[in-house]
Amino acid sequence: MSSQAVPDTQLGLTNEEIQLLRQGQAALGGGSSSSRAASRASSQGLLLLDSSSLSALGRYFDHLMASIEQRINYLSHEAQRFTQLQYDEADGIIGGADAEIARYTEILQQLDELEVDFDRIAHIKEIVKGYRSRVESLERDLESSGSSSRHHRHSSSHHSSSHRSHGHSHRHSSSHRSRH
Fold first, then answer.
1. Residue 156: how many CB atoms within 10 A of its CB?
2. Three-state DSSP state, 47
3. Residue 12 CA from chain centroid, whole number
4. Are 57 and 28 a contacting pair, CB within 8 Å?
5. Engineered SS bond to 132: which of 54, 91, 121, 164, CB 3.0-4.6 Å?
6. Are the CB atoms for 37 and 25 separated by under 8 Å?
7. In which residue ranges is the amino acid composition biased (Basic residues) (predicted)?
8. 64 pLDDT above the threshold of 80
9. Mind listing the pLDDT tens digit for each residue in 98-131?
10. Can you list the pairs that 34-41 forms with residues at least 24 positions away whose Cβ atoms lie under 8 Å?
C-alpha cells in the first residue's frame, strides 16, 4: 500500500501542538518500519496517513497524557498537603511562610502548565484518531473493492461487521480544573 501524508500545518493545530505532534512522531522513530517512516515524515512536516503509524502515535499520546495526569495528581496532592499544613500549623509557621507560599505558587503554576499541555495533547490525539479512523475506513473500502462488483455489498457488510474496533474512549475529564 502506498502511504499518503498530509502537511501537519493543515491539521488545524496551533504552533505548540504541531511541535508536540512532531516530537511524538520523532519519539516513535526507533520502533517499527512504519514508525520510522512516520518519524521521517515528521521531519518533513508531514503526518503519515498509515493506520499502524497513526495507531502507534495514538498510543504514544495516551501514554504521554497518562504521565501528565499522574504529575497533575501529584501536584494536586502537594497543594492539598500545603493547604492542610497551613490550617494545622497557622500559629507556628510564620517564619517559613514566604518559602511555603512560593512553593505553593510554583505548584499552582506547574498545574496550570500541565493542564494546558494535557489539553493540547488531547486535541492532537483526537485529530490523529480521526485520521486513523478515515484511513482504516479507506483500507476497508479498498479491500472490499478488490472483490467482484456484484458481491461488493455482501463482502463489505460482512467485513465491517467482523472488523474489530480499535477505538478508545476518552476517559479524561476536565473536572481537575476546579481544584483551585
1. 16
2. strand
3. 15
4. yes
5. 54
6. no
7. 149-180
8. yes
9. 777 888 899 999 999 999 999 999 999 999 999 9
10. 37/3, 41/5
